[in-house]
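User: I'm preparing a small set of examples for a lab meeting where we compare how different chains pack in three dimensions. I only have the primary sequence for this one, and I'd like the structure in token form so I can line it up with the others. Please keep the answer compact; I'll paste it straight into my notes.
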Amino acid sequence: MLCDEFIDSMSDSYKKIKLLSNKNGATVIKMRNIRLSKDLVLKKYQSKIEAYDKLRSISHPNLPEIYDALTLDDGQIVLEEYIDGITVAEVLESGLYTYEGAKSVLLQLCSALSTLHKLGIVHRDIKPENIIIDLSGKAKLIDLNASRIEEPTASCDTVLLGTIGYASPEQMGITASDRRADIYALGVLLNVMLTGEHPSKRLARGKAKSIILKCTSISPENRYATVEKLIWSL
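Assistant: Understood. Below is the structure token output for the 234-residue chain.
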């Protein structure tokens, strides 16, 4: 079956509400279960993203629930929890975070990443647009489009993905990225939440400064080795 055929087959039970995004080989649609009046997100990918298969049986408060991940003839369909809220990017439009506010978000992201990393998943695209603060104030890490499964024997990433400024140097093809690439992005994120700028332009002061510098070290060996170690420093 083709992806579009599968989506059409859902019309008896689901109604398309809104096209949320259509770029970089991914189409994201907000759908509503007609009988239950419950919203979900349908994602259509041109190629398979292995992380979604690994997350189907995982429940974590800071990750969206993955209801299903189907590999079809021309790509992959993912059915995912719809999260009502605003992104960190939208929060930053109205002002910067305090250190305690940013710390709260980072601790939740570290918890989510701890689960991903234990499954061998590197997110590779942590940025304000990919973090939703839901209606209860909980941070959720979304969008695994750029994720990869760690391969200890790989010499470099086969697909170069990520967001300029947040992507670690190794994501540019220098070496293979691992969980420390996500730690690099967390350091950039913390600085942006506190200053509104990349650390190369303006570095946060106080306790955050040393944390950010360690997270964003050019050499992965000089960063925090795990998110658990980062948690102890926050």
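A couple of notes for your slides: The first helix runs from residue 3 to 9. The chain has seven helices and ten strands.

User: Perfect, thanks.
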